[in-house]
Design brief:
It comes from Massilia pinisoli. Keywords: Coiled coil, Cytoplasm, DNA-binding, Transcription, Transcription regulation. InterPro entries: CueR (IPR011789), DNA-bd_dom_put_sf (IPR009061), MerR-type_HTH_dom (IPR000551), MerR_fam (IPR047057), Tscrpt_reg_MerR_DNA-bd (IPR015358). It is found in: Cytoplasm. The structure is a single chain. By secondary structure, the chain is an all-alpha fold. Helix content is about 65%, strand content about 5%. It folds into 2 domains: about 70 residues, Multidrug-efflux Transporter Regulator, Chain: A, Domain 2, CATH 1.10.1660; about 55 residues. It has a two-stranded antiparallel ribbon. Helix 1 crosses helix 2 and helix 1 packs across helix 3. The longest helix has about 35 residues. The protein is elongated, with a radius of gyration of 23 Å. The N terminus is likely disordered.
Amino acid sequence: MDTTARETSFNIGEAARASGVTAKMVRHYESIGLLPPARRTEAGYRQYGMDDVRILQFIHRGRALGFSLDQIGGLLALWRDKDRASADVRRLALEHIDELDRKIAELEAMKRTLAALASSCHGDERSDCPILDDLAAH
């Protein structure tokens, strides 16, 4: 058989390492449909090709940018659709930026509140603590 004609084949551990995700996440992405079902050997072991590894890399990068799995599913659909409009991809990215801005604002507000509580705490041997009082009050 001509080995140059065969696609590179990876077991689950190799596919995971090549894409930067764990084997557990490879199985998860497959179970939720982000990754097509793996081919199986006669012994039942999963086998992945380069296209699968590229999809896993795409998912990994999307997760690193904070996209949800649902959003990544939409982005994968657009990636696969060669007739897509780049405006659709841009719209999803801009919506995600708005979501990140909201999360950043929430985190900054939490930080300000906690900083104010920490500055009002004596931090000594006294038992009274404004931080614990605030937590108990809410």
